[in-house]
Write a structure and sequence with these properties.
alpha/beta; 8 helices; single chain; Rossmann fold; seven-stranded parallel sheet
């Protein structure tokens, strides 16, 4: 039987790479995001390239009512979801705590924590009904360490780490695996979003070394999902070879 994966934040970066990897492996995929045009383009591309079915769903995980509407409207034939990849997340700003912007904080908290919770709650209900499932959170090295001016973003990713552990306990009896994949530096739109469109500043984040790619993380996500059901990758921290921790890089390569 064909399996189904749902991936949040699927229109770029890690999320897009995950959608492509699961489609390549023969999964039907539900792709979610805020950019409807990109979702439509991905549906056409994935169905053409891999011969699978794609269900695009345009909504913002920050908005509880929108998430409830979207998940509640999933057609019956799509409700046997095998894998949820909670990828949607972002950083905004890089300021010391006393210079932080409240709106930025709200957006990070609402996306990185509350959005993950909304999706996990609603999709896990379907998985419990189906008797199995796998929830994979995209965490971060920022969930293991704090770094200068990363305060609220680091706090949200620490929350993801804690929720991963707690959800694993809650859902284990329902035959649902819970995994965290925590990357270091990945060259995506992440820094451009953090710096609010300042591409020059964003590009400097990745200068002088080879960062990870979305595909690198998608490979790890798929690997975790492909193991026998009695095996679970609880937690996986993935770094570029040139990154030792959150702030130490070899930029001479």
């Amino acid at each position: 039987m064909t399996k189904t994966a749902i991936i949040t934040g699927a229109t770029s970066g890690i999320g897009k790479a995950c959608a492509e990897r699961f489609a390549k492996e023969g999964y039907n995929v539900i792709i979610t995001g805020r950019r409807e045009n990109r979702l439509s383009e991905m549906k056409e591309q994935l169905e053409s390239d891999f011969g699978i079915q794609v269900l695009p769903m345009c909504f913002d995980v920050q908005k509880r009512e929108a998430v409830e509407r979207a998940i509640g409207a999933i057609p019956d034939k799509w409700q046997k979801i095998d894998v949820l990849v909670n990828n949607a997340g972002l950083a905004l700003g890089l300021n010391p705590i006393h210079e932080g912007q409240f709106d930025d904080w709200d957006t990070m908290i609402d996306t990185n924590i509350k959005g993950l919770l909304y999706m996990s709650n609603l999709v896990s209900k379907l998985m419990i009904k189906n008797g199995h499932g796998h929830i994979i959170h995209i965490g971060s090295i920022a969930g293991r360490e704090a770094y200068p001016n990363g305060n609220v973003y680091c706090a949200t990713k620490h929350a993801v780490d804690g929720l991963t552990k707690a959800m694993r306990i809650d859902l284990m009896k329902h035959n649902i695996r819970v995994t965290q994949i925590a990357p270091g530096a990945v060259e995506t739109e992440f820094s451009e979003v953090r710096f609010k469109g300042d591409t020059t500043r964003a590009e400097k984040v990745y200068e002088g070394y080879q960062p990870l790619t979305g595909k690198d993380i998608a490979d790890a996500v798929y690997y975790a999902s492909s193991l026998p059901e009695h095996v679970n990758i609880n937690d996986l921290l993935i770094m570029p070879m040139a990154q030792a921790n959150a702030t130490t890089f070899n930029r001479n390569r």
